[in-house]
Amino acid sequence: MGLDIRIPIGLMFTIVGALLTLFGALGNKSIYARSLGINVNLLWGVVLLVAGIIFLIAATRKHKPGTT
To answer: Whose CA, among 6, 15, 25, 28, lies 20 to 30 Å from 36?
Structure first.
């Protein structure tokens, strides 16, 4: 079958990660007082962005014939 779920999941993670990273980088810093000053949006945005890129790279790699 030609259905590869990694492409839409990778795109979703990449888009949401980019938005969250931008919000964390450009947003108001005073909202992070509850989280001990840790910019949670920036950290999780980067995590989602990296995960999305990994999914997209894995989806675009060609499989060798004879492997599963």
So the answer is: 15
pLDDT of residue 18: 97
Cα 7 to chain centroid, rounded: 12
CA 31 from centre of chain: 22
Q: What's the CA gap between 38 and 63, in Å, rounded?
A: 41
**Structure confidence at residue 3 (pLDDT):** 75
What pTM value is reported for the model? 0.81
Place of tokens 């007082």: 33
Q: At what angle do helices 6-26 and 40-60 cross, to 10 degrees?
A: 150
Spans of the chain, pLDDT less than 70? 1-2, 63-68
Measured from the Cβ of residue 55, the count of other Cβ atoms closer than 10 Å reads 21
Q: Are 7 and 59 in contact (CB under 8 A)?
A: yes
